[in-house]
Amino acid sequence: MPHFPMNHPARPLYRVLSGLVGLYILVFGVYGVFETWGDGLFDRSSNYALGLRTNLAFSLVSVVFGIFLMIGASRRGNLGHYMNLTAGVVFLVTSILMMAVLQTPANFLNFSMSTVLVSMLFGLVLLATGLYDKVGTEEHAEAERRRRNHPISEAGAR
Is the pLDDT score of 93 beyond 70? Predict the structure, then answer.
């Protein structure tokens, strides 16, 4: 079982970071929908929104993910923690898969290398925010700190 830090002092900063990532993705998606509205869903023309290549399908998925991340950033409990962890993994896996098919017809989301890099960056930011924004009771957080700072004495007491 991983030991995520609980009640980290920088938790509000991490929530703001995940909210900013969600806001960028939401604005990118909305702008991309307006830019690609007349095209096909998986069109591979050179449509750009906020510096990243997109198509209608990718823009619609971005709107959904942006809303998802904004909801996660606004939650004070552990729901946001799990949402950020999940979104971080999804962004990293998607960027690696899209990089693998970048120059092939399987690039149905119309990714470019810059889109892959931004997706990886967002995935790493979301994964990091998910690792440090776990919320728990003060007693549980103190027990976790003691176990982390004195692992040998805790193991001998069992």
Answer: yes
